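Running co-folding for NAP.
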Amino acid sequence: MINSKTQLMGLIGHPVEHSISANMHNAIYKALNLNYAYLNFDVKTDDLKKAIDGAKTLNVLGYNVTIPHKINVMKYLDEIDFMAKMIGAVNTIHFKEYQNDKTKTLCTKAIGYNTDGIGAVEAITEEINLKNKKVVVLGAGGASRAIAFQIAISGINELVILNRTDEKAKILSNECENKLTQLNKSNQSNKSNQSNKSNQLHTQNNSKIKEKIDFNENMIFKYGNLLNIEEELKNADVLINTTSVGLYPNINDKPLAIADMMHSDLVVNDIVYNPIDTGLLKEAKIAGAKTIPGTKMLIYQGAVSFNIWTGHDAPIDVMEKAVYKSRSQLKH
Ligand SMILES: NC(=O)c1ccc[n+]([C@@H]2O[C@H](COP(=O)([O-])OP(=O)(O)OC[C@H]3O[C@@H](n4cnc5c(N)ncnc54)[C@H](OP(=O)(O)O)[C@@H]3O)[C@@H](O)[C@H]2O)c1
């Protein structure tokens, strides 16, 4: 029930009316009896700074950020978590109170995170242990960036990024390899220089994000165009579609990979969640592969955001029910 102590969270984006994040988060608050409320805020790009400053003034606890603000919003934040910095986009903001040492007053700072990549990785690790696995990612857009950086620090052995525009796959793959190799070197020299201090690179103390770093320094980074899919899938363990192929209303478009290209030990994740059962997942089922729908990433990225704002673990089953209920109420 909303009362004088209710704290506010919300989604900022443009447009936001089709989002089901509010249903998912409000279902958590109800199930855990927490005095929070989550609303959708349609914010135009010119009003983005006002939305951040206003949240600080009004004691908003957190925002999720969606298209088109994930990159632009970064310039209005006080701190950015190192993974969000590496990815170059923010999808979660925590408005955190702190004591200003000079004025001895309570102030609020806006801290940016990216939970998209970790959401996808948590969804995939429900089905498969990623240690030493080969992962093929289709697409090199915004969602692919978040997933590529996060999955590359999840203990895997090989990351192959394939995209219609292969130049974009090359840029993302090279950036991932260079930044993570650099991070690994700094981590190692930090460890030897300050053996009993915490890792300086992890600027925020968010445990969910911090504990997930496992970079294999011999990891293979590859990239190419979509003609390479069949060859790369032969010995792959995981296939992730991050392209918008199959997204409503184009639900009958030919999937980028068909059953004949897959094998039964493959785990196939399509991050498109409208429809839930995409053409790619139907092909994966024909091949006898394990499938992970895009709703799982949506749920887990929301669960990590909730953890950042409140410190509580989110009830995944409650979120799942809320997502399926809202999806079934939508016309498409
Ligand atoms: N489950 C979740 O929580 C979640 C979260 C974020 C996004 N998503 C979904 O992920 C999808 C991508 O989002 P995004 O933000 O990454 O979009 P984006 O930045 O616009 O990237 C789109 C990607 O799809 C590729 N693509 C588009 N049409 C294609 C076609 N006909 N054939 C082959 N490739 C095609 C693009 O290739 P080019 O580079 O060649 O154009 C690019 O790699 C959307 O469907 C979105 O709804 C889901």
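Result summary
Residues 196-205 have pLDDT under 50 and may be disordered.
The chain has two domains: 7-114+297-329, 117-292.
Job closed.
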